[in-house]
Specification:
alpha+beta, 22% strand, binds octanoyl-coenzyme A, Peroxisomal Thiolase, Chain A, domain 1, 13 strands, 9-stranded mixed β-sheet
Length: 373
């Protein structure tokens, strides 16, 4: 079978960052305003008062200290609590396209490829900012790529599913060189008024170039030894936003039209699926977790990652075995494991193994076994 490699990766980090303290300060002002405004209804027992958030809780429960966002002032405005993003005209690049292009250009440079050598563009991320035309086709035009492009969404697992699709396309001959891009504007679909989740997400874009080993000119390439994808339906992470919302105006802006989750249930149900999927994937490749130098895991929760790695390795993992980027980037959905891969791969020697793995809504789990060329 044709050998396929990841020959370059790229990372676009938005210009604004928000610390836990900044986020909590604005959230708590929103809570105080809300409770003041509804004082008599709360006193009458019509509905409960809102509770303050806390930086300590956020850090202890998730490991997150900071997040990057495309726009900060609207998120921190207690009267707005969302990024302020002026609508662009159809002649301007979309926000997702702009972020994707920036990450893609870095990946192309690393892979020593020019845009016109790309003949497949996959934009793989949690939420597309419009229904059509596909963001991928806009990215294809903006960069000057050949061939074809399409969008795909498997929530947090979009990147690994995208890499798997690109690898299959190259093996089958329907593409020669692919770009898989993950622009995530998580701040656009997060309810910053919800104490349970206002701290979870950040914005970012990542990109990788996937091509046949025979066309690869990069000295930093990783061979894709194999991919394993798994899904199992769950309502525990859900967002009901969609074009049918307007057909029922009464609930068009209801809470479920943004990200909602049962965090504890996700933790309990998803982790066994993750460790089973990775274990059976490695078994099939006749490898064991201890053969791997590094696990570039989905970045949702620090405890979750340590738990998954401990279960796989049968011992406490070191910080170099399981690099954490969520402390600075928060959960960036599909991009999280690719950020970890991009920032923590320079020390790899020829023949060393690493595993890229994502897990999240769906449920969905992706596992990509890599070997340094
Ligand atoms: N400040 C202070 N206290 C709080 C806060 C807060 N901000 N929030 C909750 N509390 C309180 C709760 O009310 C609760 O109080 P009590 O015990 O009195 O009821 C207590 O703290 C404990 O609350 P939880 O049980 O909810 O806390 P956890 O320890 O479970 O931590 C987490 C919450 C961090 C959410 C954790 O459950 C978690 O990370 N779970 C894993 C979830 C996960 O991995 N999800 C993946 C989702 S991402 C994905 O798939 C992509 C989706 C698409 C992207 C969407 C972009 C927006």
């Amino acid at each position: 079978m044709k050998s396929v490699v990841i020959s370059g990766s790229g990372l676009y980090t938005p210009p604004h960052s928000i610390s836990n303290d900044e986020l909590v300060e604005s959230f708590n002002r929103y809570v105080d305003n809300y409770n003041d405004h509804h004082q008599s209804a709360i006193a009458a027992g019509d509905f409960p008062s809102l509770e303050h958030s806390s930086s300590d809780f956020i850090h202890k429960a998730s490991g997150i200290k900071n997040r990057f966002v495309v726009e900060k002032s609207g998120i921190l405005d207690p009267d707005f609590m969302a990024p302020r993003l002026p609508e662009r005209t159809n002649d301007q690049p979309s926000l997702l396209c702009e972020m994707a292009v920036s990450a893609a250009q870095q990946a192309l440079t690393k892979a020593a490829k020019s845009a016109d050598e790309i003949d497949l563009v996959i934009v793989a991320c949690s939420n597309m900012q419009r229904a059509y035309p596909a963001i991928a086709i806009e990215v294809q035009a903006a960069l000057g790529c050949q061939g074809y492009g399409y969008d795909m969404n498997v929530a947090c697992s979009s990147a690994t599913f995208g890499i798997s699709a690109a690898s299959d396309a190259i093996r089958s001959g329907s593409a020669r060189c692919a770009l898989v891009v993950n622009p995530e504007v998580c701040s656009g679909h997060l309810d910053f008024r919800d104490r349970d989740c206002h701290f979870i997400f950040g914005d970012v874009a990542t990109a990788v170039v996937v091509e046949a080993e025979e066309t690869c000119n990069s000295d930093g390439a990783f061979e894709i030894l194999g991919t394993r994808l798994a899904t199992e339906f769950s309502n525990n992470i859900r967002n009901n936003f969609g074009f049918l919302n307007r057909t029922h105006p009464q609930s068009r802006d209801a809470r479920d039209k943004l990200f909602v989750q049962q965090g504890r249930k996700v933790f309990k149900e998803l982790l066994p699926l993750v460790t089973q999927t990775i274990s059976s994937h490695l078994n099939e490749l006749q490898l064991s977790p201890s053969d791997f130098k590094r696990f570039w895991l989905h970045q949702a929760n620090l405890t979750m990652n340590i738990f998954a790695a401990k279960k796989l390795l049968g011992r406490e993992p070191s910080t170099t075995e399981v690099p954490i980027v969520l402390d600075q980037y928060a959960n960036t959905s599909s991009a999280g494991s690719v950020i970890a891969f991009h920032l923590h791969q320079q020390d790899f020697q020829q023949g060393e193994l690493g595993l890229l793995s994502s897990f999240g809504a769906g449920y969905s789990i992706g596992s990509v076994a890599l070997k340094k060329k």
